[in-house]
Amino acid sequence: MSDNVTSQMSFLEHLEELRWRLIKSIIAILFGGSFCFLFIDDILQSLIAPIRNLSNPPDLQVLKVQGMFMIKWGVALLGGIVVAIPVLTYQIAKFIGPGLYKDEKKVMVPLVFFSYMAFLAGIVFAYYVLIPYSLEFFTSMGMMEVKNNFSINYYFSFIAMLLLGSGVIFELPIVVFILSAIGLLTPAFMRHYRRHAIVVILVLSAFITPPDPISLVFISIPLAFLYEISIGVSWMVNRSK
């Protein structure tokens, strides 16, 4: 379908196209989840690995009959979402593509690639820095009379929130690039509202991390650093324009 025809689609035709984009996205997630389920034991071992090097490692417990079954499928589904992110962003790009100019369409593929790389960088940061330090801090708060026995459901929820939250946070330079390209952000604007941004960072970190101050601080520091990087990204975009 040409751009001309696409731009003249009716409202119902746009809804139909959106429906097919959503169906393709769901299929990609299910396919990615099924693929991850083939290696689910190895994935779970990788997620459990951070507790092995702790000075006071906890014991993980399954507290429900169907606990491990739900954990395996839940982790596989989250893995499927991560694997399917390039497909999801591609479907979004194809849906909004007809409304973009030629120059904007040229940067679409690199943008999808770098957004995925940024998300993976956030996951790597959480796995090797954020999670070990958080677990070490919380397990060190124990007492001789109290054993660290963690529910495996809560443990994986904690890990998943940190991994996905960190991945989303590392998308900040990509978001700034897009907003700067369409003229909504400038370096001067971002520098002027830096203090306000710090407050927003703290609030955002509180929403995407487990409800404790340590995780909030650990995620707020890299986010503040990413904000400074984003100012540089905005400067480069506006300079090129």
Short description:
By secondary structure, the chain is mainly alpha-helical. The protein has a domain at 3-170.
Topology:
Blueprint: H1 3-7, H2 11-38, H3 40-48, E1 59-61, H4 67-96, H5 102-106, H6 108-139, E2 149-151, H7 152-169, H8 172-181, H9 187-192, H10 194-208, H11 213-240
Parallel strand pairs: 1-2
Helix pairs in contact: 2-4, 4-6, 4-7, 6-7, 8-11, 10-11
Describe what this molecule looks like in 3D.
This protein has 241 residues and is mainly α. It has a domain at 3-170. 77% of the residues lie in helices and 2% in strands. It is built from eleven helices and two strands; from the N terminus they run αααβαααβααααα. The chain has helices spanning 3-7, 11-38, 40-48, 67-96, 102-106, 108-139, 152-169, 172-181, 187-192, 194-208, 213-240, and strands at 59-61, 149-151. A two-stranded parallel ribbon has the order 1-2. Helix 2 (11-38) packs antiparallel against helix 4. The longest helix is centred in the middle third of the chain and has 32 residues, at 108-139.
